[in-house]
Design goal:
Layout (H helix, E strand, L loop, with lengths): L7 H24 L5 H27 L6 H21 L6 H27 L4 H19 L28 H20 L1 H11 L1 H6 L4 H27 L9 H14 L4 H17 L7 H15 L12 H9 L1 H13 L6 H20 L1
Length: 372
C-alpha cells in the first residue's frame, strides 16, 4: 500500500475514469435494450435539467442573487438554435448531423450570452426582490415577443395576436452527445467556482462592500456570472429544441423558471452536487407519480415543504461530492487521519518523529540557556 495520498494529477485521472465508466454504463444500458424510448427521454430531460440547474446555481448559490428569468435565456437559445438549423437546411448547407447539432446549440448559447450581458448590466445594479422582479419581467417580455415574431410562428409584432408553435425542427439531439455536453458544463462550472474568479464572486456574495473595498470590480464580476449562466441556459435551450422538434413560447414562462429555482434550493445553494441530484430527482419524481395523477402535485408540494422545514439549507447545503476523497478514505485512512491531525496541530504534515525531535531539541536548548 502506498504511504501517500493521491496527487492532483491522479485525482483528475480518477475522476475522468469515473465519468468514462458512467458513460460506459449508460451505453450498455441503452444498447442492450433494457430501456425504452420513454426512459431515454427522461434521461435526456434530466441532462437538460442538470445544465439549467447548475448554471442557475452559479447565479443564486455562488453569486447570491435571486433571478427568475432563466427560462427566458433558455427560450432565446432554443429559438436561436432552431432557426439556425432551419436556415442551414434552407440554404442547402451539407453538414454532419452531430456537427450541425453542436454548431446550432453553440449559436443558441452565444446569443443567450449576449442577451445576458445586455440584461445584466442594468439589472444587476439592483438587489434581492427588485432583481427578482426585473428578471421575472424580462422573461415575460421574451415570451410575448417570441409568440408574436413571424420567424417564430407568430403573426407579427404589429398584430398583437399570440403566435403558433415553431415546428419542423430537425431532431438532432443524441443522448450520448448530450451526456458529454452535460459533463463539460458541470466541469467548467465547478472549475469556475473554485478559481480565483469564483472566490471573488463568493466574496461579493458574503459582503459586497468589503469585496469592493478589496479592489474587486463588482459590476464586472456580476455581469460575468450572469453571462456565463445565460450561456449555459442557452445551451440547454438549444438541446431542448433539437430534442423535442417543436417550440412553444410558454417555455419562457415564469412557472418554468420557478421550477428550476426550486431545484437549486432543494439541492442546496452553492452545491453543484446538490443541483445535479435535485435536477434528477425532481425530474423523475413527477414521472413516478403519474399513477397517482390526482395527487401528484400534492405529493410533490408536500415533499418540498418538508425539505424546507427540516433542511432549509437544502439537502446538501454547500457540500460537494469528491470521488478522490472517497478513495483516500478507503485506501489511505491512516494517512488521511494523520493529514487532518497535522493541520489541526499546525505541524504541516510533518511526521511524529520529526515533531518529537524538534520538541527534544527545544528542551535541550532551554536547559542550556538556564544553566548559562
Amino acid at each position: 500500500m502506498k504511504k501517500s495520498m493521491l496527487s492532483t494529477k491522479q485525482s483528475y485521472l480518477i475522476c475522468a475514469i469515473g465519468v468514462v465508466a458512467l458513460f460506459g454504463i449508460l451505453m450498455g444500458v441503452c444498447e442492450s435494450g433494457l430501456v425504452n424510448a420513454y426512459i431515454k427521454g427522461i434521461m435526456m430531460t434530466c441532462c437538460i435539467a442538470i445544465i439549467m440547474t447548475t448554471s442557475l446555481n452559479l447565479t443564486i448559490g455562488v453569486l447570491g442573487q435571486l433571478t427568475l428569468g432563466c427560462c427566458g435565456f433558455e427560450a432565446i437559445g432554443a429559438y436561436s438554435a432552431a432557426l439556425m438549423s432551419k436556415l442551414l437546411v434552407a440554404n442547402g448547407v451539407a453538414m454532419d448531423p452531430t456537427l450541425r447539432f453542436l454548431f446550432t446549440t453553440l449559436v443558441g448559447g452565444v446569443v443567450a450570452c449576449v442577451f445576458g450581458v445586455l440584461v445584466g448590466i442594468p439589472a444587476l445594479r439592483l438587489h434581492g426582490d427588485y432583481l427578482a422582479i426585473i428578471t421575472l419581467g424580462f422573461g415575460e417580455i421574451i415570451r410575448v415577443i417570441i409568440q408574436n415574431l413571424k420567424v417564430a410562428g407568430g403573426m407579427g409584432l404589429d398584430k398583437g395576436a399570440a403566435g403558433q408553435a415553431l415546428i419542423g425542427i430537425d431532431r438532432l439531439a443524441n443522448l450520448y452527445v448530450v451526456f458529454w455536453i452535460t459533463v463539460v458544463t458541470v466541469v467548467l462550472l465547478f472549475m469556475f467556482a473554485r478559481s480565483r474568479y469564483g472566490r471573488a464572486v463568493k466574496a461579493i456574495r458574503d459582503d459586497e462592500i468589503a469585496a469592493s473595498a478589496s479592489g474587486i470590480n463588482i459590476t464586472y464580476m456580476k455581469v460575468l456570472v450572469f453571462a456565463i449562466s445565460a450561456f449555459f441556459a442557452g445551451i440547454a435551450g438549444g438541446i431542448f429544441a433539437q430534442y423535442i422538434g417543436s417550440l412553444n413560447p410558454a417555455m419562457a414562462g415564469w412557472l418554468q423558471s420557478i421550477n428550476y429555482v426550486i431545484m437549486v434550493v432543494f439541492g442546496g445553494m452553492g452545491s453543484l452536487t446538490g443541483s445535479i441530484v435535485s435536477a434528477i430527482g425532481l425530474t423523475i419524481l413527477p414521472e413516478l407519480l403519474r399513477a397517482f395523477s390526482s395527487y401528484r402535485m400534492l405529493v410533490y408540494s408536500v415533499a418540498l415543504v418538508l425539505i424546507m422545514i427540516f433542511r432549509p439549507q437544502g439537502i446538501f447545503g454547500n457540500w460537494e461530492f469528491s470521488l478522490t476523497k472517497v478513495i483516500n478514505k478507503l485506501f489511505y485512512p491512516v494517512k488521511v487521519k494523520e493529514h487532518g491531525k497535522s493541520k489541526q496541530d499546525g505541524t504541516d504534515g510533518k511526521s511524529e518523529k520529526a515533531v518529537k525531535a524538534g520538541k527534544s531539541a527545544e528542551k535541550a536548548t532551554k536547559t542550556k540557556e538556564a544553566k548559562a
